[in-house]
Amino acid sequence: MSQSKKIFYAFVWFCLHFEGRMGVFGVETGEIKTAVEGDSVTLQTEKQRDEELFWMFGPQKVLIAQVKKEDGVFKVHDGADGRFKDRLVLNYNTGSLTIKNIRPEHAGPYKLEIISDTASHKTFTVSVYALLPIPVITRDSSQCSSSSSSSYCSLLCSVLNVGHVTLSWYKGNSLLSSISESDLSISLALPLKVEYQDINSYSCVVNNPIRNQTTHLDISELCWPCPAPLPIPVITRDSPTCSLSSSQQNCSLLCSVVNVSHVTLSWYKGNSLFSTTRASDLSISLSLPLEVEYQVEYKNTYSGGI
User: Fold this and answer.
1) Which residues pair with 188 in a beta bridge?
2) CB under 8 Å to 3, separation ≥6 — which residues?
3) Which residues face 260 on adjacent strands?
4) Global confidence as pTM
5) Which residues of the chain have a pLDDT value below 50?
6) How many helices (H) and strands (E) does the chain have?
7) Residue 36 pairs with which residues in a beta bridge?
8) Cystine design at 204: which of 126, 134, 135, 186 (Cβ 3.0–4.6 Å)?
9) Residues linked to residue 256 through DSSP beta bridges, in sequence order
10) How confident is the model at residue 70, as a pLDDT?
């Protein structure tokens, strides 16, 4: 290579490397690429004969790949901090650069400087989105209380550790509500109220510009009327067992509750379960007997409960 040509290349390199252009990180936006974490992204170009290529990354224009045909140089670099180690593939025929298993730290501006008898360049801006989690739908059980008489079921759709996403509730194909967040690694939650007997189709969707994840609501699984407040068990003595001629040494007791459903009624001796009975029917009355000696020691404490 002649001395004058070397000087020309050096001058072109200097001009391209330090030119100031408006846009992301100080260079023009150029071609925009979007990817999900773990994907491979190819920055396309078509190398002509005798062209020398220099791929650079970031505002500091760190050299990450190069093709210098005259010197036989064809290689990729790890980058100043090693972030591109084992991730770059350079196509010798076209000069295109592929970033494998891309991560958020590989997002940013890329610049390709092309030098032959003339000089030119291409720019790319790469955005990398994290993998989207599946939204989780839960019931807000705090809405049920002893005084609750609401006919609505309160739900919450949540996603954890997300960034640059929108979380939305849909009724069929119609958008009901949504919330967006541009920060990184944040948790989002979006409430929804539906009637217990609602037969419509609801779904919660989290999405970014290139992907989405959906969870469909099963109303029959998550939504049921709030349980009625439990009555206080009543303990009574079974007086018919007592008579003037009675010489029994035991006292017959009865623990009762009325108009209950899906409950368990139990007798305890201290902290030990003594006896129990269950009912899964609706609006039923339960009774559980117990016999104790009249002169039972004070240390034995009996209680009935549901």
Assistant:
1) 159
2) none
3) 284
4) 0.56
5) 5, 8-9, 12-28, 146-148, 244-245, 297-299
6) 2, 22
7) 129
8) 135
9) 234, 287
10) 64
